[in-house]
Amino acid sequence: MANVSSQDLGNQPIGKLLIKQALPASIGILVMSLNILVDTIFVGNWIGSTAIAAINVVLPVSFFIAALGMAIGIGGSSIISRALGADHIAKALKTFGNQLTLTLLFTVTFAVFGLYFVDTLIPAFGGKGNIFDPAKVYYEIILYGVPILGFVMMGNTVIRAEGKPKFAMYAMMIPSVGNLILDYLFINVLDYGMAGAAWATTGSYVVSFLFIVWYFLSKNSELKINLSHFRLDKSIVSEIGSLGFVTLARQAIVSVTFLLVNNALYNFGGETSVTAYAIVGRLSMFALFPVFGITQGFIPIAGFNYGAEKYDRVKESIYTAIKYATILGTIVFIALMVFPEIITKWFTADANVIDVTPSNMRWTFAAVPIVALQLIGAAYFQAVGKALPALLLTLTRQAIFFIPLMYILPLFFGELGIWMSFPISDVLSTIVTAYFLYREVKLNLKTEVIE
After folding, report:
1. With left for phi above 0 and alpha for psi between -120 and 50, is residue 270 left, alpha or beta?
2. CA distances from 136 to 50, 51, 127, 150, 191 (A)
3. What letters, b where the CB count within 10 A reaches 16 and e where it falls short, cover 13-29?
4. Exposure string (b/e) for 209-246, b if CB count within 10 Å is 16 or more?
5. pLDDT tens, 139-165?
6. pLDDT tens-digit profile of 206-236?
7. Coil, strand or helix: which one is 76?
8. Distances from the Cα of 435 to the Cαs of 393, 402, 426, in angstroms?
């Protein structure tokens, strides 16, 4: 693979550059989505349904700690992209060193905290009765590896900020593929049960971590740091925190939304409605992976060119990303509208679930063609370091519009009101995002500065 410079983010044609950045990101997201589905099948068939429940109990804790690494990564990567664009190499190096220090401090602290309160946290998240013992076995092993996962999540975003999407893709694919291979070895061949499932996951994190360490030590990375860069800088930590909080808030509101919707649907339609939502939820990441890929590819391009004050290229990247993502979203929309019954049957043979899920799927994804604008708009403000609008636009879709709607509309439409809340909140949040993005382009991206 040719050694690509971050400066290409400011020089190559935007359309070509976006495809170059987005394609590896899309493939990485697709592989991760498939891994979640196949891993669930392996564990369920080789250990049992209780094992699936045990893993679901542990995931909120491990994902939260891993999300800390992602938040530090995304917050710092925004700074790095803009610093590289402005040719402020010293700031980019200092930011990366601070990211490493913060990731170590936060992930290890929370992991130790999580291990100390293991007997309290597992029941609190639903690990009771027969689920407790296998959940505890899985939990303790996973917590040992979660700091490593935090470094993987952080490092991946920095690699992307350097303009090296293929290496970032490899870093995403390695734990996914490695987990499946180790699952087969530890569970099916060596018969280690829950411990085997946990060590397979932890082992896959370690392999990906070693790959990322190799990347930053190799000639492929431009970020060659020394010990002085690890010392925390108040201004950089503050900026990482404000931008990273957007990611943490997004992860938190997603978790809260799932909890609220599950409870509301259970009250209306029982287990069948909850199962339908589970299918739709799992399908979201898998079906929309090309749109998410475009969004991931867009971020370093916008950040770098904003830092370089090449505002014409920033505007072009916004328009191009929205165009590409809208086209891909429309294709996904057509498939989901035409084939919801077939798609539902991939997940279950339950006649009741098959009966109700297709119509609910159509409601949930009804506004997919326009969601691209909302995702790109919110991502833009995070990419250029504007934390407050990024946070507000990130929260509009679910916290500001969806959650109130899912309580109001059922008063008039029953369970259907919950499903109607998805497209209505998508439309409203897209309108708000379009307004803020239009103002940003008109007021702050007026003139390209020629250096």
Report:
1. left
2. 13, 11, 8, 21, 18
3. ebeebbbbbbbbbbbbb
4. bebbeebbeeebbbbebeeebbeebeebbebbbbbbbb
5. 888 888 888 988 988 888 888 888 787
6. 999 999 999 999 988 888 888 899 999 999 9
7. helix
8. 11, 19, 14
